[in-house]
Write a structure and sequence with these properties.
Blueprint: E1 19-26, H1 31-43, H2 49-69, H3 71-74, E2 79-86, E3 90-97, H4 119-126, E4 129-135, E5 138-146
Antiparallel strand pairs: 1-2, 2-3, 3-5, 4-5
Helix pairs in contact: 1-2, 2-4
């Protein structure tokens, strides 16, 4: 049973049966493949393989951004929380980090010789919808992939 601090985000788009999960990870680079494996284990066999590939790619980008660009990766006790929900028509993913006073999510078209900066550009390109918000718990970036 979820406690008060474990409430999943509101999902008014669900409209029918859905499954939802929540997991907290340390705000470390090593957590990115752990986040990906956790989501793969939950969704494999529940969604089509191409949809799973897109979800895992975009989730990896959001987790990496949370570690690189927020206080989650800058403090020793930093963390990121991943919410994952599946309905009959889409997958919703939300990554909440510890926030940042020095950066905000922004889509940037990558240069051809640039090694980084493709995260939100890929999210914008592949997700049906995406967005972000700030609250007392930090910053959340979310996306939805239809399928």
């Amino acid at each position: 049973m979820l406690g008060e601090e474990d409430k999943l985000p509101a999902m008014p788009w669900a409209g029918g049966p859905y499954s939802a999960w929540r997991q907290v990870f340390p705000g470390q680079v090593a957590s990115v493949p752990e986040v990906r494996a956790w989501a793969r284990d939950l969704l494999a066999g529940r969604v089509a393989a191409p949809l799973l590939d897109d979800v895992l790619l975009l989730l990896s980008e959001l987790a990496a951004n949370a570690v690189a660009h927020s206080d989650s990766g800058r403090t020793t006790d930093g963390r990121l929380t991943v919410y994952l929900a599946r309905t009959t028509t889409m997958v919703h993913v939300e990554v909440t980090d510890d926030g940042s006073v020095t950066s905000a999510p922004a889509v940037r078209v990558p240069e051809t010789d640039d090694d980084g900066g493709r995260g939100l550009w890929l999210v914008d390109l592949l997700a049906a919808e995406w967005g972000f918000h700030h609250d007392g718990a930090g910053r959340s970036v979310w996306f939805q992939v239809a399928g």
